[in-house]
């Protein structure tokens, strides 16, 4: 059974345990300083919009999205999301860097829609969940229990059928094994089984509609920036069979994952490993940018 310090092993959390967990969460960085200020600097060249608002007690967060200035309804949409898990830093910074460094290169070719920090409360606390101990990245379905997920789905609703590519930027960190997976199993009253952390970048394709050539195009681009995660001794990455170099598959929509929220032909979830001895924070951010660009380039060329 899990030895997590909150709850009784084998019993799912109730309100008391969730309140105890919430009482231990502390703000460690600033969404306003790190994210909102970076978005504001993009305003001269992009359309910035608020698509929602989170109110958690005394904490209040505007949810912001970025669009290209020359939006054209005749063009397909590429969707970039980051910070669905707020603690996964390069997902947020990579999305912002893509807009700053590369997005204008796609003017007149595709419409670019970026939500760089879907979960600002969790960003500030370097956590996976929202304050209700709900994982937004398992909550992309109707009547979502996560405000973060519901707001993003509402933003995308009007273009949902026109999204050609959706890339959702994530990280797999050492704290997945030391904190977040133990917390998850404790919350759900299940035993914790250590699984290990893959050393390197990998992708999660959609098992319902796989696009292997698209995934490999992203892998090949990212490999120029950082190393690709090998399979473990069982031929797996985090318990899932490797279907190609650096690629595993999940049923994205069935699991309520962000990357499954549209009808995009091309979709993937990136997973950078920032705790690797062979990768720096700058490399992780650059890997996310490379993944986005490679994904858009492939999708546009194979519409």
UniProtKB/TrEMBL annotation:
Which species is the source of this protein? Answer: Oceanisphaera ostreae
Which residue ranges does the record assign to the Peptidase M14 domain? Answer: 27-303
What are the names of the required cofactors? Zn(2+)
The family line of this record is: Belongs to the peptidase M14 family.
**By its UniProt entry, which PROSITE patterns does this protein fall under?**
PEPTIDASE_M14
| Keyword Acetylation carried by entry | no
Q: Which residues cross the membrane?
A: none
Known InterPro entries for this protein?
Answer: AstE_AspA_cat, Peptidase_M14
User: Keyword annotations for this protein?
Assistant: Hydrolase, Metal-binding, Zinc
What name does the UniProt record give this protein?
A: M14 family metallocarboxypeptidase
CDD domains named in the record: M14_REP34-like
